[in-house]
């Protein structure tokens, strides 16, 4: 509404509220109506108007479909999540509705409850400690840049990538997360993925194909790998190992925000350690 009309409307309203004279009312645009300095509305499709992201960060996400924020989650919080995960593995806590995925390569006979058995816990909304990740103000502050306000945690996971069996079993083929989710619109969804330790190509870092968030949802299927596949993962059909993947080397606490159509995956874990990352999908 333009300012003279807004002032006139305000005068009428104040009059109706019983004020005797509402003559000298001046209407000021609210903060919501004033674009922040440097804001260019026509350029942005995947990020929201607020003052959290710099113009460069916004443009980077718009162009590439992901953004890495260094050292976002504290070491102390990550230690709490790690401890809670270990308690779950030892069955000291059994949160309701938690889905626990076991390593396909470990024989049933080796069953000793430990983190070596468990590759992933998922849907941890009933676990107060793990769910704290989804409520961390420092994470939500960035999530809101992509989803807007009114944020909902739709899917949660802590991934404990095991050492590879030599058959690519620890590889997560290139995929789009939207394949797994029955809700839309995709531009109101963001994935937040926080490294729980140093992660590079040796222990299976995230690999992304920048700019692919602008593409559509592709058909997914089991990859045609000679070594065999891990039956829990789908990948895109045109999974070409010689494409322009960018490998995201990250430190503990670094957080990757990415669009659900961004094609991404993670490589094999060539170490003997269990590579950990916690992530959630917010809409
Ligand atoms: O290996 C990872 O941590 C990423 C896994 C992933 O992209 C997924 O679960 O959708
Ligand atoms: Ni994914």
From TrEMBL:
Q: What is the enzyme's class at the highest EC level?
A: oxidoreductase
EC annotation from Swiss-Prot or TrEMBL: 1.14.11.18
Which UniProt keywords are given for this protein, alphabetically ordered? Dioxygenase, Oxidoreductase
MF term (GO), any: dioxygenase activity
Is the keyword Oxidoreductase assigned to this protein? yes
On the tree of life, the source organism's domain of life is Eukaryota
- Record's family? Belongs to the PhyH family.
Q: What is this protein called?
A: phytanoyl-CoA dioxygenase
Which species is the source of this protein?
Answer: Equus przewalskii
Q: What is the lineage of its organism?
A: Eukaryota, Metazoa, Chordata, Craniata, Vertebrata
């Amino acid at each position: 509404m333009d300012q003279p009309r807004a002032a006139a409307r305000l005068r009428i309203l104040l009059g109706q509220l019983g004020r005797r004279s509402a003559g000298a009312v001046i209407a000021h645009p609210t903060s919501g109506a004033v674009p922040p300095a440097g804001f260019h509305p026509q350029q942005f499709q995947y990020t929201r108007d607020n003052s959290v992201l710099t113009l460069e960060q916004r443009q980077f996400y718009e162009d590439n479909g992901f953004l890495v924020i260094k050292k976002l989650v504290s070491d102390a919080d990550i230690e709490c999540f790690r401890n809670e995960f270990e308690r779950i593995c030892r069955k000291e806590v059994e949160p309701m509705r938690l889905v626990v995925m076991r390593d396909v390569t470990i024989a049933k006979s080796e069953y000793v409850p430990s983190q070596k058995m468990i590759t992933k816990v998922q849907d941890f909304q009933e676990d107060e400690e793990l769910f704290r990740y989804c409520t961390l103000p420092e994470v939500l502050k960035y999530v809101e840049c992509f989803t807007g306000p009114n944020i909902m945690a739709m899917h949660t996971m802590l991934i404990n990538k095991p050492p590879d069996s030599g058959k690519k079993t620890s590889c997560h083929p290139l995929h789009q997360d939207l394949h797994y989710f029955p809700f839309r619109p995709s531009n109101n969804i963001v994935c937040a993925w926080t490294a729980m330790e140093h992660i590079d190509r040796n222990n299976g870092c995230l690999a992304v194909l920048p700019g692919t968030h602008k593409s559509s949802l592709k058909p997914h299927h089991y990859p045609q790998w000679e070594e065999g596949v891990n039956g829990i993962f789908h990948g895109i059909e045109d999974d070409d190992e010689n494409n322009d993947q960018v490998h995201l080397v990250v430190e503990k606490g670094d957080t990757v925000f990415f669009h659900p159509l961004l094609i991404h995956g993670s490589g094999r874990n060539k170490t003997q350690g269990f590579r950990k990352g916690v992530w959630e999908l917010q809409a």
